[in-house]
Design a protein that fits this description.
Structural class: alpha+beta
Order of helices and strands: EEHHHHHHHHEHEEHEEHE
Helix content: 40-55%
Shape: rod-shaped
Strand content: 5-15%
Largest sheet: 6 strands, mixed
Radius of gyration: 39 Å
């Protein structure tokens, strides 16, 4: 290995010192950490735990001069708007001076005050208090110097506006009060000792204009603050809505995968046990069990692929229709292959049921039959589906007894049933009966569902 190896020193990558053997700093193969020693995904920091840009050193990530640099602090300052305001102040002040011959002409100190006031606006976002009080002090000194009235007050307006929007309302109001008090003192009492020497006391009616100016600044600042809070609240609501939609989608996918895999794997498990038991004594029956396993696994792969396709193609129509009550015969056949005889009774027309209700009804029946196969010693089950004018009513019964697969009413499957029904405004409940069996009931409202007439007897009942 060439001498391009580097070692870490003080957070920077430095070349290895001359004379260092190429392999001196390399651990032996036996000293390398194994896969078990590596941090897993759960050990990685989340996005919220990562330091933000403000927490990074000015030199960039890693703190060295060769790190990934973020923009220098002065580049993030509001240069464009500040230069624009400074230009208005400079040009406007000179224009205003022509109409005020009795005021002190603009000189070096006046220019310094105008430039300093403009520069203070550069920090109005980072340090709004400094900008508010600084521009207020500049304006007060400018008035005390007897210079012409003009856009110098724009500096105060912008500084206080930024302070109010940033939530520093007391600082902004205090700064405006400082300018107002300074104007009163200069215009009515201190004018005798301040330039220009020929200036007299200002009329009290002039204070109405000053008051209107102060009120306008505060009103505009408060409006800006309220508007910004409204925008921040709207952004927070949108972010919360997006998180809520993501959570709902994650729960939907979890329910779909649970229902598909739990049902199919239960059938596969039962049939695998049958095949192993009969492999030597009855090869033909074992072949039948393997055929059932192949069919169940193929169906499960198709439904899982459909769920994954919905993730890859958000917003597009699914390429395969979602399962519904029309596939109840398939469920009963699969249950029969697992040793469970199911009798299905249907009242009303199941055709035309809204897709969401149709899928929820199918999954509830599927999960109930899966639980009977896994957790009950019953060999028969009854499924009753009734469509009324405004709801689908589903009931699944078995005669037990339970085989100790879990507490009654618990498990992710039963929780998923309740969530599916609740998502459509319905309800689902499950629990043991007094005679030792188990019953699952669900009511799923039909949004705009049509009439439900009783079909002919041949369509009402189908059994296995």
């Amino acid at each position: 290995m060439r001498h391009c190896l580097a070692y870490v020193r003080g957070g920077r990558r430095s070349p290895a010192p001359r004379g260092t053997p190429p392999s001196a700093d390399l651990p032996d193969a036996d000293g390398l950490p194994g896969a078990d020693a590596l941090p897993g995904a759960d050990a990685l920091p989340t996005g919220d735990a990562l330091p933000g840009a403000d927490a990074l050193p000015d030199g960039g990530i890693g703190g060295g001069p060769h790190g990934t640099h973020r923009p220098a602090p002065f580049r993030s300052l509001p240069w464009r708007s500040t230069v624009f305001i400074a230009a208005i102040v400079q040009v406007g002040t000179r224009f205003a001076a022509h109409g005020q011959p009795g005021r002190v002409a603009l000189d070096g100190p006046a220019e310094v005050l105008l430039v300093v006031g403009s520069l203070l606006l550069l920090v109005r976002h980072r340090w709004p208090r400094v900008a508010a009080f600084g521009t207020a002090a500049v304006a007060t000194l400018y008035l005390a110097g007897g210079y012409p009235y003009g856009p110098v007050f724009l500096l105060v307006a912008v500084g206080c506006f930024a302070a109010v929007v940033a939530g520093r309302r007391i600082a902004a109001w205090s700064a405006v009060g400082l300018v107002w008090a300074g104007h009163l003192l200069v215009a009515h009492w201190l004018y005798r000792w301040l330039p220009p020497g020929t200036d007299g006391a200002a009329p009290w009616g002039q204070e109405l204009a000053v008051t209107a100016w102060v009120v306008a600044i505060l009103a505009a600042s408060e409006l800006g603050r309220v508007r910004r809070e409204q925008l921040a609240h709207a952004r927070a609501e949108r972010a919360a809505a997006e998180r809520r939609r993501a959570d709902e989608e994650r729960l939907r996918i979890a329910r779909e995968l649970h229902d598909v895999l739990a049902h199919s794997l239960s059938v596969i498990n039962v049939q695998a046990g049958v095949g192993l038991a009969l492999l030597d004594d009855d090869p033909e029956q074992a072949r039948t069990a393997l055929t059932t396993i192949k069919g169940a696994s193929k169906e499960a792969l198709g439904e899982v692929r459909q769920v994954l396709d919905s993730l890859r193609a958000q917003g597009r129509a699914p390429r395969a229709p979602a399962p519904g009550l029309a596939r109840l015969p398939e469920l009963t056949e699969q249950a029969k292959s697992a040793g469970l005889h199911v009798t299905v009774t249907v009242e009303g027309r199941t055709a035309g049921v809204p897709p969401g209700a149709d899928l929820a009804a199918f999954r509830i029946v599927q999960e109930a039959l899966t639980n009977i196969v896994r957790h009950s010693g019953a060999r028969t089950a009854r499924v009753h589906v009734a469509r009324t004018a405004d709801a689908l009513r589903i009931r699944i019964d078995d005669d037990g007894p339970a085989t100790g697969g879990g507490p009654a009413g618990g498990g992710n499957g039963l929780v998923g049933m309740r969530e599916r029904a609740a998502a459509l405004g319905g309800e689902a409940e499950a629990g043991p009966r007094a005679d030792g069996g188990f019953t699952v009931r669900a009511t799923i409202p039909l949004r705009g569902g049509g009439g439900a007439g009783r079909t002919a007897a041949g369509d009402d009942e189908e059994g296995t």
